[in-house]
Amino acid sequence: HSIITRQQCESILRDIYNSHPCAAIPNQVQEIIPYLYLSGLSGKESRNFDYVVDISNYGVGVRNIDFTKTLVICINDSMNANIYKYFNKATNYIHDKLQQNKSVIVHCAAGRSRSASIVIAYLIRYYNMSLQDAYVFVHNKRSCIDPNDNFLIQLARFENRCRKSH
C-alpha cells in the first residue's frame, strides 16, 4: 500500500477537475432558449440578468444574494438528494419570468448537474420534450452537462408525470 500526501491528493483532484469540459468554460454562459441561460456559479456575474435560480448551496449565508430576484434552492449534487421536489417550484418560477420577457440564469457550482437538471425539467414541462430530447437539446448548447444518475432517474419520473397531465 502506498500513502499519498495531501498535496498529491489535491493535485490529482485538480487534474481531474481541470480535465472536465466544464472546467474550461466556468465563466461562460449558454443561452438555452431565448431569455433562459445556464452556467456555473461565476457565470452569473458576467452580465446583468433579471432573475436568478441559484442551486449552488455554496456560501449562501455569505454571498451577496438579492433575494428579491433570486430563487435559492439548497441541494447537494449527490446520489441521495431529492431534486424532484423542486421541479415544480423552479419551473414555475422560470416560466413566469420568461412569460414577462425577463432573462433568467440557472446556475449551480459548475453548471453541470443540478442547474442542468432544472433546465431539462423546464423543457420537459413547458416544451413537452422527452427527457432524452431535452437532454440532447441542452447538451448541444452546453456540452459539459452531466446530471448525476440520481437526478436523471428523478427527471424520468417528472417526465412521466408531465406526460400523464397533458
TrEMBL record:
This is protein-tyrosine-phosphatase. Its EC number is 3.1.3.48. It comes from Leptotrombidium deliense. The keyword Transmembrane helix does not apply. It holds the Pfam family DSPc. Residues 28-164 form the Tyrosine-protein phosphatase domain. It is an enzyme of class 3 (hydrolase). Belongs to the protein-tyrosine phosphatase family. Non-receptor class dual specificity subfamily. Keywords: Hydrolase, Protein phosphatase. GO terms for biological process: negative regulation of MAPK cascade. GO terms for molecular function: MAP kinase tyrosine phosphatase activity; MAP kinase tyrosine/serine/threonine phosphatase activity; protein tyrosine/threonine phosphatase activity. GO terms for cellular component: cytoplasm.
